[in-house]
Amino acid sequence: MSYLELRDIHKSYYLGKEEFPVLKGIDLNFDLGEFVSILGESGGGKSTLMNIIGGLDRQFQGSVTVNGKRLDHNDEKALDTYRRDTIGYIYQAYNLISHLSVIDNVLIPLDMTTLNKSEREARAMQLLERVGLKEQAHKYPNQLSGGQKQRVAIARALASDPKVIIADEPTGALDAQNTQEVLQILDDIAAEGRLVIAVTHSQSVADAGTRIVHLEDGQIDKDTKLRDAYATDETPRLKSKLLPASVSYKTAYKHFKYNFWRNSLIVLGTAIGLFAVMLFSGLGNGIKGYINKQVNDMVNPQVVSVSRYQKTSKSAAADAQAAPSSSGGASQAGPSAAAGGAATTSTKKVSLTDKQINKLKNLKHVDQVDKVYSASGVTAKYSGKTATISTLQNWNASATTNTIKYGHKPKAGEVLIDKKSVAKTFSKNDYKSLIGKTITLSYKTLNKDNKMVTVKFKAKVAGITSTSNSMGMAFDNYVNTKTLTSAMKANNVDTTASGVAVSVDKLDNVNATTKKMNQLKMNGKRLFTATSVSSIIGTVQTYVDLATNILAAIAAISLVVSALMIIVTMYMSVSARTKEIGILRALGESKKDIRRLFISESLIIGVLSATLATVVAIGGELLTNHLLASIANFAFVQITIGNVVTVFVIALVISLLAAMLPARSAAKLNPIDALSAD
Ligand SMILES: Nc1ncnc2c1ncn2[C@@H]1O[C@H](COP(=O)(O)OP(=O)(O)OP(=O)(O)O)[C@@H](O)[C@H]1O
């Protein structure tokens, strides 16, 4: 039994339906230790026969048996293993991979062996030393002479320690001296107990082997033994394994570096879109945060404003947001600074009864219910000076101590005045000294008998308020509840409230509790209209979200362009690297390895784009926030980890999708066609 046996090999090429038979029944036996030359006329089918022996061609009739085992040409994976394990190729045109260094070319088959990294590198160097190229290990193929390239190809063919070396015109492109040297190396390889099959046109080259097989008209017409085959021994051989994924990533990275400038432009193009998406998202976060802060600084977010539900009034929310009435008069209103005026002018006041208030108090998560009173057009007098307070409220749950700049919240007999409209009117430079001083407050309103009366009382200044007021809200002036209601009662003014401020135990419970209040019923009729600041903020934020999402979506359109760019680049890369694909397949890489190679390269583009976009966006964030610091001391752009993760996910998805088709077409290439690409 010979090591390699060919039986009745027939092979035809087809042009349309027309058949061109090339091999017409080849029977050959080869043994290890032989150096066989295949001679024959040009176009006689020598290369075709080599592709069949080498496991690259699957479309033929007949059988190839290796070491007693018949190859299954329908099993592509088995053929990948066969090429990886048993075959080493040497070509006339060297077929080195131009973007890999000499040593990296030799390392390709070694990556598919079980040797560890240092063993692989040592073996590659040892093989290069054997072919006299140790010094050239880190050069690139285009920096070598023809003879040197062919020696690199020989080192690469030997790297995985294959039993069979197929050399297709190995000396075809070499001068006489290099030809002799290469023939000597091939003879040495056979002497190691390997089978060397070399295709040649040259009789003198053929004479260097141990046997000459002559091909004529698709058949063997002569088979001449020149000398004995070399003896073989059973030295253990290197074991092969599938190509690890990490090698594909590394090779992809090397190719990325090789085409650095072209790839950098693509990275830049993709990064621009990703950067815009990230910056707009960060801007959305910042604006939402800013609105939140502004509102929460002025009003306690844990408080819900509740008034009686009225079908006739357009909506309580509208009431709550109406502008403060400038007309005089006191009212008992919702906690919003504005509600009082609107209630007296547009709708009949509906007071909340104690029973109704108790219903609110009994709700789960409700901590406290405060009646809300609001007096408009209040005159404040101190030391002969007069200031007008457009709205004076009782200190209730909805008020927040955030607004108090000096002093404390008003206890019995005390009032809080705002810095700008009241305190500075009384004492321009030394307004802080007003704390502890007593001022007189008065306003006109209708009493229970519908008569206009003046409610007048004195109060000690407990503190001074100041809000940043960038939201354009009213100034904050608050009087102690009891102080106000006593004065109202003294003038026979109604002290039932048309609005209450309800404190909820936790911020997280505000929305659910507000909903429950709106659902409360008595005798089948809805009782209350409840509005929380967070629901107002929620509405505003919905619009901010919408706006930023639209902006981000527009930015995302540019990502479609990026994806197209990556697709085009990948297709270009596939067509430029067709030969490389053929070489890698011949060396035993599988379709999957090829697919992974191109996908990895695209993923590298994606990751680098996302990284660049993140760096630039964070730089943009710092710069924008710095520039806007003069408007308000707030970070208007807030890029979160979530935004960064999203951008990376988008980049990876885009690059993965963009690489899929090109990578698929690369993997589907027929290795023989790929090898013959220019
Ligand atoms: N893919 C193909 N499609 C159609 N015909 C092909 C194909 N490949 C080779 N042939 C034809 O098959 C015949 C054998 O080609 P092959 O390359 O095997 O010959 P060869 O003996 O190696 O020639 P040379 O010595 O010139 O390299 C030629 O006539 C060639 O035109």
TrEMBL record:
<dbReference type="GO" id="GO:0016887">
    <property type="term" value="F:ATP hydrolysis activity"/>
</dbReference>
<keyword id="KW-0067">ATP-binding</keyword>
<dbReference type="InterPro" id="IPR003838">
    <property type="entry name" value="ABC3_permease_C"/>
</dbReference>
<dbReference type="GO" id="GO:0098796">
    <property type="term" value="C:membrane protein complex"/>
</dbReference>
<feature type="domain" description="ABC transporter">
    <location>
        <begin position="4"/>
        <end position="242"/>
    </location>
</feature>
<dbReference type="InterPro" id="IPR025857">
    <property type="entry name" value="MacB_PCD"/>
</dbReference>
<dbReference type="GO" id="GO:0022857">
    <property type="term" value="F:transmembrane transporter activity"/>
</dbReference>
<dbReference type="InterPro" id="IPR003439">
    <property type="entry name" value="ABC_transporter-like_ATP-bd"/>
</dbReference>
<dbReference type="InterPro" id="IPR017871">
    <property type="entry name" value="ABC_transporter-like_CS"/>
</dbReference>
<comment type="similarity">
    <text>Belongs to the ABC transporter superfamily. Macrolide exporter (TC 3.A.1.122) family.</text>
</comment>
<dbReference type="GO" id="GO:0005886">
    <property type="term" value="C:plasma membrane"/>
</dbReference>
<keyword id="KW-0812">Transmembrane</keyword>
<feature type="transmembrane region" description="Helical">
    <location>
        <begin position="597"/>
        <end position="619"/>
    </location>
</feature>
<dbReference type="Pfam" id="PF02687">
    <property type="entry name" value="FtsX"/>
</dbReference>
<dbReference type="GO" id="GO:0006865">
    <property type="term" value="P:amino acid transport"/>
</dbReference>
<keyword id="KW-0547">Nucleotide-binding</keyword>
<feature type="region of interest" description="Disordered">
    <location>
        <begin position="317"/>
        <end position="342"/>
    </location>
</feature>
<feature type="transmembrane region" description="Helical">
    <location>
        <begin position="527"/>
        <end position="544"/>
    </location>
</feature>
<dbReference type="InterPro" id="IPR015854">
    <property type="entry name" value="ABC_transpr_LolD-like"/>
</dbReference>
<feature type="transmembrane region" description="Helical">
    <location>
        <begin position="550"/>
        <end position="576"/>
    </location>
</feature>
<keyword id="KW-0029">Amino-acid transport</keyword>
<feature type="transmembrane region" description="Helical">
    <location>
        <begin position="260"/>
        <end position="283"/>
    </location>
</feature>
<keyword id="KW-0472">Membrane</keyword>
<keyword id="KW-1133">Transmembrane helix</keyword>
<dbReference type="GO" id="GO:0005524">
    <property type="term" value="F:ATP binding"/>
</dbReference>
<dbReference type="Pfam" id="PF12704">
    <property type="entry name" value="MacB_PCD"/>
</dbReference>
<dbReference type="InterPro" id="IPR027417">
    <property type="entry name" value="P-loop_NTPase"/>
</dbReference>
<feature type="transmembrane region" description="Helical">
    <location>
        <begin position="631"/>
        <end position="659"/>
    </location>
</feature>
<keyword id="KW-1003">Cell membrane</keyword>
<dbReference type="Pfam" id="PF00005">
    <property type="entry name" value="ABC_tran"/>
</dbReference>
<keyword id="KW-0997">Cell inner membrane</keyword>
<protein>
    <submittedName>
        <fullName>Peptide ABC transporter ATPase</fullName>
    </submittedName>
</protein>
<dbReference type="InterPro" id="IPR003593">
    <property type="entry name" value="AAA+_ATPase"/>
</dbReference>
<dbReference type="InterPro" id="IPR017911">
    <property type="entry name" value="MacB-like_ATP-bd"/>
</dbReference>
<keyword id="KW-0813">Transport</keyword>
